[in-house]
Specification:
Length: 368
């Protein structure tokens, strides 16, 4: 009975002709719907697993987003990025966190760009090598790419001068940048530079002048600011302006925390620029413009590598709390709102955690 049934089925069923994937399926797993792949290696156990992972386009035809993050091993400097093979030419989004020499990421980016020349529209670069004082770190990568269609750029680094090559990148690419985000943590814009020659120092005024004709969104996070970086900055299409000013040191016991505060001076400087920005423009146009200013004042007795740790909840020892803004700042806010602009100012200060709060913070992090 079973034999007759099999014979009957075989007479009515004709298998499809062989395809390139047919032979592949016999040997490898196929993920036809895989769109996003995230690989994050945080511990040291991966060093003992050096098996090669090949994921060509035939195995993942729909793959478009890849996030690859490899943390540095204490005993090794190199990272075996070559162990992974992905269909780079078909990717539209790539996040690559690695300590490989610049030539390796350059090769990967080249494979993406060669498949669709000059199509890169969004780029985020993070140079986080705090133990290396070489100002050239990251420069090889930025000096060897061209992005003529770039619309959104984000640069993240603790060393402000390592952002200097982006000026050359934008000048070389002649792109029409619409969004610029600069995250310098709590590093001072005009602070100490790590062996960088004067000709290679980052100049924020120069950068803003370069991107101002097409810029719609500007966001800057840093520490102490000088009072000249907004001079001659006129962006006719600017709609959103965000400034986060951290790392402002003040004595632990100060009768008036706002007196002679660098955060106070920075806020007034930005808001006065915003007032000029709003003047003369129709109220309908101003209603589409918004500005945000966040000030963080930290006692000098706190010695964090990054004073934004408290604001973002990354430390168990203290937290940021919102406090009332100074009267002079409130007056500027009211003036801008009268013009129709949307403005929001947040003033913060530090409160030390109790032992109970520290324990609760650590417990919550373990649960997360």
């Amino acid at each position: 009975m079973a034999k007759r049934l099999i014979t009957s089925i075989s007479q009515h069923f004709h298998p499809p002709p062989p395809t390139p994937l047919t032979g592949l399926r016999k040997k490898f797993k196929i993920w036809p719907a895989l769109h996003t792949l995230r690989i994050c290696i945080k511990d040291d156990t991966w060093i003992y697993d050096r098996e090669r992972c090949a994921l060509p386009a035939e195995r993942a035809p729909a793959l478009r987003h890849i996030e690859l993050e490899i943390h540095k091993h204490e005993l090794r400097k190199e990272h075996p990025l070559w162990l992974w093979t992905f269909p780079y030419p078909q990717l539209t989004h790539l996040t690559l966190a690695t300590a490989e020499p610049s030539v390796i990421p350059l090769g990967i980016v080249a494979r993406i760009l060669l498949s669709s020349p000059h199509s890169l529209k969004k780029l985020s670069v993070q140079i986080d090598v705090t133990s290396v004082r070489d100002p050239e770190v990251g420069r090889l990568f930025l000096d060897h790419i061209s992005t003529p269609r770039l619309q959104s750029l984000e640069v993240i680094t603790y060393n402000v001068d390592r952002a200097y090559p982006i000026i050359h990148l934008l000048t070389r690419s002649r792109c029409e940048l619409r969004e610029l985000r600069l995250d310098f943590s709590s590093s001072a814009l005009n602070g100490r530079r790590d062996r960088a020659p004067d000709t290679d120092r980052f100049n924020l005024r120069e950068l803003l002048y370069l991107v101002s004709p097409t810029l719609h969104t500007l966001a800057i996070q840093c520490g102490r600011m000088d009072d000249s970086w907004l001079e001659e900055f006129s962006a006719p299409h600017l709609q959103k302006f965000v400034v986060l000013c951290f790392g402002i040191k003040k004595p632990w016991k100060m009768e008036d925390p706002d007196d002679a505060s660098a955060a106070h001076d920075a806020a007034l400087y930005v808001l006065r620029w915003a007032e000029e920005w709003m003047k003369g423009a129709p109220q309908e146009e101003n209603s589409n413009r918004s500005i945000e200013f966040v000030a963080g004042s930290f006692p000098t007795m706190l010695h964090f590598r990054d004073n934004t740790e408290a604001f973002y909840g990354r430390t168990a020892y203290c937290k940021c709390e919102t406090v009332p803004t100074p009267d002079t700042v409130d007056m500027m806010v009211s003036t801008i709102r009268t013009m129709g602009g949307k403005v929001n100012v947040v003033w913060t200060t530090i409160r030390m955690h109790t032992h109970e709060e520290q324990d609760a913070w650590r417990k919550q992090k373990e649960e997360d």
